[in-house]
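Much of our argument rests on the idea that a fold can be written as discrete symbols. The amino acid sequence and the backbone structure tokens for this protein are reproduced below:

___
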Amino acid sequence: MAEILVRYFAAAEEAAGRPEERLQLGEATLGGLRALLSERYGEPMERVLRSGSFLVGGVVSRDPSRELDEAVDVLPPFAGG
């Protein structure tokens, strides 16, 4: 089991109802985190995760096999301009 600090931004924070939390993960990968967040927060978080991304070790990723660091940022889609 790995303990991960998960930080939420914008729509992800709204879906989670908090800016951050510590989670215990059996599978410390983005796929494992994504499954846990979908189960815990349902459709509002699933909408964010469908088009958002994760910041792991300073690198943006959507790869479900990516191993997690001690902290992960959940980023909603951003509008450019």
Summary: Residues 30-51 form the longest helix (22 residues).
